[in-house]
Amino acid sequence: MADSIAATSLIGYRPLGGGLSVKDGSYRRKSLSSYWRPALATELTKEAYSFREEERVPRTWNYRVDTGAARKPGLWPPENRADNPSLHNPLIRQERMGCGWLGAIFEWEGVIIEDNPDLERQAWLSLSREEGKPAPPAFILRRVEGMKNEQVISEVLCWSRDPADTKRMATRKEEIHQSLQGGIYRLRTGSKEFVNILMRYNIPMALVSTRPRKTLEKAIRTIGIEGYFTAIVAAEDVHRGKPDPEMFIYAAQLLNFIPQRCIVFGNSNQAVEAAHDAFMKCVAVASKHPVYELGAADLAVRKLNELSIVDLKNLAGIESPEFGPPEPEPEPELEEDNGRSTTVGVDDIFW
User: Fold this and answer.
1) Distance of alpha carbon 187 from alpha carbon 110, whole angstroms
2) How large is the C-alpha radius of gyration of the chain?
3) Are 284 and 315 in contact (CB under 8 A)?
4) CA-to-CA distance for 99 and 312, rounded, in angstroms?
5) Domain that holds residue 134
6) pLDDT digits (tens, 9 = 90+) for 53-80
7) Nearest-angstrom CA–CA distance, 319 and 281
8) Is 273 helix (H, G, I), strand (E, B) or coil?
9) Which residues contact 267 (CB under 8 A, 6 or more apart)?
10) Does the structure show a pLDDT above 80 at 156?
11) How many CB atoms lie within 10 A of CB 221?
């Protein structure tokens, strides 16, 4: 076949060295054309196939533009969870991706105002005496910090499972607490100054508490911080309190922010746990717990005025892997049972 291709392709051309001959190792004469024709035929065959490959290359180039939507993990630049490709305005997208796009969620007691744990303990003890229930021990009262009253009565203290009875006792407990409080609220040092700084930078803020809404609104008017908070989440708005992240998630929805760009300001490890479960950063304020007990928080301070806008932007700009959506856990592989016995025989001589 190679000889035929060579002969057909070289019609009208003189073969090189057609009249020459050489001697091989056995001193037999061979014509140079016998060496030349197979090699030339192979080259012509390669050229023919390469020409066919060039004909199959499309003339219109459709390169796919990498938008980062299907980006593989580990590539640079990293994916920004704050980006929203559905926004057609590039300036709004750029603002969202910046570290200045963040929301602040404040707890009420222990962060904005001074917290008095003794009043909470006295309210529960007074309610237990009125209802003829056993007095809750101190470690139980520490455990129920930040929970809703209904949640404490039905799930922790187990005083009643009836919703109406539970609601009645929860309302009565709040009345006792308000009578002990006496309508006196005192701002924590540095809290109002810090809130004013956030308002100056147009950072939206939300207030969360397990107190009733009427109690919160009255207290806000008393201390003179009306209009500071964009959203207020009270006991009527959620089903469960801390350490469940329901309050913080609902506050982020009211602020129209993704959880990864919300910073929670709490005063207990329950708040830190709830914030991290909601994929939020948490700044712990050491009001009733020392700083060394709040090591799980992203940042721990004694007063809010110790913070600056730069600190908040640094927290919001961190794309920590632990604050991403949880990866699916691999299913355990079940070992196939081949019917072999797993019992081990022991020789009596061994003993």
Assistant:
1) 9
2) 38
3) no
4) 9
5) 117-181
6) 444 544 444 444 444 445 555 554 557 7
7) 10
8) helix
9) 107, 109, 110, 111, 115, 284, 285, 286, 287, 288, 289
10) yes
11) 10
Question: What is the C-alpha separation between 248 and 264, in angstroms, rounded?
Answer: 8
Q: How far apart are the first and last CA of the chain?
A: 82
Q: Is position 271 within any domain? A: yes
Residues 200 and 312 in one domain: yes
CATH of the domain at 271: 3.40.50.1000
Could you give the CA distance from residue 307 to residue 111 in angstroms, rounded to a whole number? 13
pLDDT 10s digits, 12-68: 444 444 444 444 444 445 454 555 555 566 666 666 555 454 445 444 444 444 444
Q: Are strands 205-208 and 103-107 parallel, antiparallel or unpaired?
A: parallel
336 backbone φψ class: left, alpha, beta (φ>0; ψ -120 to 50): beta
Q: Which residues contact 3 (CB under 8 A, 6 or more apart)?
A: 37, 38, 41
Q: Is the residue at 211 inside a domain?
A: yes
Task: Please tell me the total count of domains within the chain.
Answer: 3
| Cα separation values, 175 from 35, 112, 201, 212, 332, Å | 110, 22, 38, 11, 53
The one-character DSSP state at 60 is: S
Give one word for 227, left, alpha or beta, with left for phi > 0 and alpha for psi -120 to 50.
Answer: left
151 and 170 in a single domain? The answer is yes
The residue from 181, 203, 232 where one domain ends is 181
Could you tell me how far CA 274 lies from the centroid of its own chain?
A: 13
Considering the domain architecture, whether residues 272 and 218 belong to the same structural domain is answered as yes
Q: 122 and 108, same structural domain? A: no
Q: What percentage of the chain has pLDDT greater than the value 90?
A: 52
The reply to whether 143 and 262 lie within a common domain is no
Same domain, 132 and 169: yes
Token pair of 16, please? 């090189």
Position 231 in a domain: yes
Cβ proximity of 122 and 136 under 8 Å: no
**Counts for the chain of helices (H) and strands (E), in that order:** 12, 8
Residue 50, judged by CB atoms within 10 A of its CB (0-12, 13-18, 19+), counts as exposed
